[in-house]
Amino acid sequence: MAGLEGIEQPREGRRAAAARWSPAVEDERALAALELYGNPAECDVPLPSLPESAAIARRLVQVVVLRQWGLSPKLAEDAVLLASELVGNAVRHTGARVFGLRMRRRRGWVRVEVRDPSRGLPCLMPVQELDISGRGVFLVDKLADRWGVDLLPRGKTTWFEMRVADR
């Protein structure tokens, strides 16, 4: 398979790994993450600056958007992706040991924030078709309705907002 060289492929008679995934299992992991780390809709949730924190953030955003706020799966999918990108940037570029994840909802809007101790600003870079990295802020710019950075006395908060149809 093109682009999958070196990746173990499922053998005859074995199910592919994707077949083992189920929304119920992911929902269970999301609820466990909520219990372990806290609710980003209620307070700033501290996460370690490790690559695994992107998965934790995805689960937290998913459970808040879908279960707590009862919003659409499409909004949840986009919010999960963008939160993961902001967390990935915090892990890769800030040198922080810990960063904070926070979510807010107000009439017509959902906001996701990642707070870190670096004052270095994210850059919106031109993206080429064959680039293998550097697309995080590009994706945020394309999928979010608005985004930005608030400088703090010690660090910054990078955020994005998405419109929601209030019922």
Describe the structure.
There is one protein chain. By secondary structure, the chain is an alpha+beta fold. Helix content is 36%, strand content 22%. It has helices spanning 23-37, 53-68, 73-93, 136-143, and strands at 45-48, 98-106, 109-116, 146-152, 155-163. Strands 1-2-3-5-4 form a five-stranded antiparallel sheet, covered by helices on one side. The radius of gyration is 17 Å and the shape is globular. The N and C termini lie far apart (46 Å). Mean pLDDT is 84; it is low at 1-22.
Element layout with pairings:
Elements: H1 23-37, E1 45-48, H2 53-68, H3 73-93, E2 98-106, E3 109-116, H4 136-143, E4 146-152, E5 155-163
